[in-house]
C-alpha cells in the first residue's frame, strides 16, 4: 500500500491537546471499524439465512486452520494500522516540523 | 450513496467493507452536523460577547476555544474528515492498477497538457484544501489523486450535489448563462480550477458546439479529469495552469467560469482571478463565477463561527474572505461594467429559456451565489 501523502497546513485546535486530538481520531476510526464489522456480519447472516445454510451454534466452536489464521492475522493487522494511524501521522508531522 | 443516481466509468469502486467505511464517515459527519452542531450554536449564543462588540465573531470563536464541549466537537469534526480521506485513499490505491488501465481505455477525445515547470500557488501548497492528503497540486503520472478527490468529493457532499456525478454546480453555471445571457453562443469555454471535471462536463454538454478547456494545478487530478470526461463522451482539453495566470492568450474565450473556486484561493488571488477572467474573454464574452450561497455578514453567529472552523480546521483559507467580498466592486475594478450579483437556483437540467436568477438565496444546495458579467 502506498503511504498516504502528508497533509499540509494542519492547524492545532487551540485548547485541544495534541493527545486529545489523537484520541478523538482513534475513537472515530475504532467506531468506523466496528461499524464495518457489524455490517459485514449482518451481510453474512442475511445471506446464510436466505440460503438456509447457517447453524449459529457452530460459530462458537469454530477453529481456523493455518491458512485462515494467516488471513485473519492480516485483517487484524490492517485494523491496527487504521486505528492507530493518528500516532503515525502525528509523528510524521513532528518530523516534518523539525526538519522543515 | 448506497443507491447512486448516475455514475461514470472512472469512479473508484468500493468493496463491501470500503462502502461500509465510507458510509460510516458520511453518517458520522451527518450526526455531528445534525445532533451536535445545533447545540454548539446554543453554546455560541451563551458566550456571545454581543452585537456591540467590535470583533464579535472572532471573540466568540476565541471564547469557544475555552469550552471543552466545543473542543470535543471540533476535534471530532476534523477527525471524521481525516478518517474519510484515509478510507478513500486506501480504497483508491487498492484499485490503482485497474483505475489506470481504465483511464488508458478512454475514448481518444480531448487532451491533457502538463507543464513540467509549473509552480502551484502557495495557498494550495502550504495548506491542503479540505485536508485532502497530498492536496490538489500533487503531481503524478497516474490518475490516483484525481480518483481520491472525486470519490472524496462525492462522499463529502453527502449526496446533495448530484450524487456520484457531483455536477450540480456546473449545471447551475450553464443554467445561469441560459437565464441571463440567452444570446451567448460560446464557441470556446474555459473553467478556472476544474478539479476532476465534475462541473465542466455539464457545461460542455450544455454547449456542445464549443471547444472546452479546464485548468487546474495538479497533473494527477488533470489526468483523471481527462479520463473521466472522455469516458463520459465529452471532449475537454485539460491544461496544467494557475487561475491567476492562465496559460492562454488574451481574448481567447467566449465563456470563462469557475465553480466554488474563490473560497479555496486567497484574498489577493480573488481580484487577480477576476482580472484574469477579463483578460481571457473576447469582447462580448461572459464570465460566471459561482460560489457557496452564504454571505458572511448575513450569517448568524454560529454560522460565522462555522465558517471560521472551515477556514482554520478544514483548510478552506479564503472561506470568510470569499463570502465577505464586495463582488460588485471587484467585478467593476476588473473591467466588467455591469456585473450581475445574486443567486441562481440550483439546477441539474439546464435549458435555454430557463430563469432562476434573483437577489435572494434559497439556501445551501438550493441556490448558488453568482457574480457574472459581460466584457
From TrEMBL, chain B:
It holds the Pfam family Methyltransf_25. One of its GO terms (biological process) is methylation. InterPro entries: Methyltransf_25, SAM-dependent_MTases_sf. Residues 189-285 form the Methyltransferase domain. It comes from the Bacteria. The keyword Cell wall biogenesis/degradation does not apply. Keywords: Methyltransferase, Transferase. The keyword Transferase applies. GO terms for molecular function: methyltransferase activity. CDD domains: AdoMet_MTases. This is Methyltransferase domain-containing protein. It comes from Novosphingobium ovatum.
